[in-house]
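Data availability (excerpt). The following record was deposited with the supplementary files.
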Amino acid sequence: MGGLKGKIFFSLALIALVVILGFTMDYKSITIKVDGEDIHFVTAKRTVGEVLEYKGIVLQPDDYVSESLHTPITPGMTIEIIRSFPIIIEVDSRTIIEYATANTVAAILMQAGIEIGELDRVMPQLDTEIVQPERIKVTRVLEQTEVVKEIIPRETEYKEDSSLDKGTTRVVKEGRDGERELVYQVTMIDGQETERVLLEEKILSQPVNRVVAKGVKDRVTIGSVSRSYRTAMTMVATAYTHTGNPTFTGVMPKRGTIAVDPSIIPLGRKVFVEGYGLAVAQDIGSAIKGKRIDVFMDTLEEARKWGRRTVKVYILD
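Predicted structure:
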């Protein structure tokens, strides 16, 4: 009988111990704010991480949690969770995806480490609240001052000179170009120039005109006769003699016949060749191109004596 009473006493004592332990365990009342809902409950879990695991709350890498997962649970604690959501941001010629928990455009850009300049344009505006996936466009606007130096081209001033043959010129003074400084305000949008406004123009040096003497002398003395001419030019002259063949114009060559480049001196044109005399353009030659002529001589000896020389050729009226 005594043994039975002992067992009953032990059982009662064990039950009392369990009851006492139950009342003395560290239960705490806390609140979890998540997905727009406040969850109130009592827990004996020791850390924030254990509580979230117990409640089946799975966190994404970019979700915001007001407390560290290792923070001990304290009575009356409120744990706030803000779910992250994707935001597409277009900036600096690239598109990035930022998982944000902030609720305004300005805060989202700050979270993404994107600085906004004073003139930059942001859509939606910086104070716009974002609560769901959206696209943010940042347009970079830059205003800068640009200094440009430009050449002011010299002009050419012609002066008639009766000592020069008609059709010829001579540089009297080279002159020089001038220079000016232009100050612009340049607007760049996303790296592309969209506007350029001239703010100031300053002349650094004035141009000096180039002066060219223009020949107006239009007569040449041939023997005792003065003849008018259309133009005069300096040409290279060689000589040739009889070959037994007619000229390109069909006549037999004689003194006063010259071979020319017809694009320079038309066939049939009368000319006066300095050191040779009056002549007519009646022939051509494969080597006679540009400002070259071939004067006819009656003998090979005369042709050799003439050789190759630079002469002035007057194209007569």
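Summary of structural features: Residues 218-316 form a domain with the Barwin-like endoglucanases fold (CATH 2.40.40.10).
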